[in-house]
């Protein structure tokens, strides 16, 4: 019996995500036992500052990276959307899990309805510029106020604070078994998700063999994630600028939808590209380049 140690953040959602991977490994490989080791990350500890102020999304993975390098854990499980575009070469993403619902959803404060978002004074709590930018068009009367923390924290803030609603990823709520609190789903056309949303990334050490990941890997999710991340990376790494991307695979074709925000014009555009799924990365880069070129034309006109 071999034992595999998976490192995870401490939040309930992170632990459930690690358990999803644990179950998949144990089901496919009866001779393997998986243990989950949780860690508090800097991103979880500091909640009163924006992520940009304290050093970006990487703060959710830094502690786990260290544990992997020190061989305290064998794998780390992350939401792919939280994995920075620039990853440590020594710690590659080894596999992606089958994608959960990629959409964003609306959560209303008790007693509120979507109609309330169309009234003056309505407040949506979100620290995501990607979400706020797109939601402004759906709910022009709303004000946007920052809201950080894990899913549970945000739900408490929604009930206690001056918010009318907040927006979260469907995937997280589905994994927590909390779908019944969802007010409504936004289609990807209404609100384009973050690159990698709904996909779990399994990270490990370069050069090691991981035979127990066979049967866990999902090819479609891996390809979609690759296209979406290539798009974001080709734009600017997605550090502070809002970007969004969602890829869908049908047979051999990959269709990638991307959102690009132009900081000077303060305008964004959404565009689509389709092509061979084997060219996932190239499609991501092509869409980014096309959109940058087109944004250049907005300035001149
Ligand atoms: N930034 C936090 C985060 N990272 C991943 C998810 C949801 C799960 C996923 O996308 O796989 C969430 C919560 C949210 O944005 O609502």
From TrEMBL:
Stored PROSITE patterns: PORPHOBILINOGEN_DEAM
Cofactor comment: Binds 1 dipyrromethane group covalently.
Modified residues (S-(dipyrrolylmethanemethyl)cysteine): 239
Keyword Metal-binding: no
InterPro entries: HemC (IPR000860), Porphobilin_deaminase_cofac_BS (IPR022419), Porphobilin_deaminase_N (IPR022417), Porphobilinogen_deaminase_C (IPR022418), Porphobilinogen_deaminase_C_sf (IPR036803)
Keywords: Porphyrin biosynthesis, Transferase
Catalyzed reactions per annotation: 4 porphobilinogen + H2O = hydroxymethylbilane + 4 NH4(+)
HAMAP family: Porphobil_deam (MF_00260)
Role description: Tetrapolymerization of the monopyrrole PBG into the hydroxymethylbilane pre-uroporphyrinogen in several discrete steps.
Subunit architecture: Monomer.
Miscellaneous section: The porphobilinogen subunits are added to the dipyrromethane group.
PANTHER family the record matches: PORPHOBILINOGEN DEAMINASE (PTHR11557:SF0)
Name assigned to this protein: Porphobilinogen deaminase
Species: Faecalicatena acetigenes
